[in-house]
């Protein structure tokens, strides 16, 4: 199983230079991926821009939106162009992880309704795939640039329902769980695999998950301070998410082992703080 690390693009107080230093150090530490999370109505850096900055100071590490709330990017052609640009600039390292989103304020701020977002999401993905394949879509010059990877950036979709599993099987290269236990991952992953087989897709989808972490002497306070704020709109669920954060090396090792046993291909540990020592502490915990 690959181990990735999140970029602290949503951690309050993260300075631009900190993002660049984090990206360089994470690549040097051997992590497989720099992942981003994000929402619109929150203080933080937009994911595609943050990963573009990371792309400029790295050369090997994958760059993954884990996940981008795609329905908020209502212009599918523009999103396709942005994603293809980042994928090409990074030499094919960009992975577009996308999900529906469900917070009303993010959609309200975008002038969009949450109603029908699943249908719009599928139409958006289909349009982007046509563009990445080089179809001109009625325009003489087409919409570029041409992605490095045939067919466009690797596409990973989120979701925890049978409908979302079937969407992965029809439209994507893999699936990501945005949070939850290894047992929850194993159950959902089985559903994804079943939908993949029913769709007649060869091989298996790549399957990823996220897990929050914070290490060091103030780890619990750091995790609680960030996660209770970021997920505050979710009430009691915010406390459950905060409590699940890996705040000791033993918890990190336990999570990694359990997710690997559950069939996870890549586990991205998302930071709850932006101090560069967090990279070193996580690398030591999983060594």
Automatic annotation (TrEMBL):
Occurrences of domain Luciferase-like (ranges): 8-231
Keywords: Flavoprotein, FMN, Monooxygenase, Oxidoreductase
One Pfam family matching this protein: Bac_luciferase
Domain of life per record: Bacteria
Gene3D superfamilies for the chain: Luciferase-like domain
PANTHER family membership: ALKANESULFONATE MONOOXYGENASE, ALKANESULFONATE MONOOXYGENASE-RELATED
Protein name as it appears in the record: Alkanesulfonate monooxygenase SsuD/methylene tetrahydromethanopterin reductase-like flavin-dependent oxidoreductase (Luciferase family)
Provenance organism: Streptomyces pseudovenezuelae
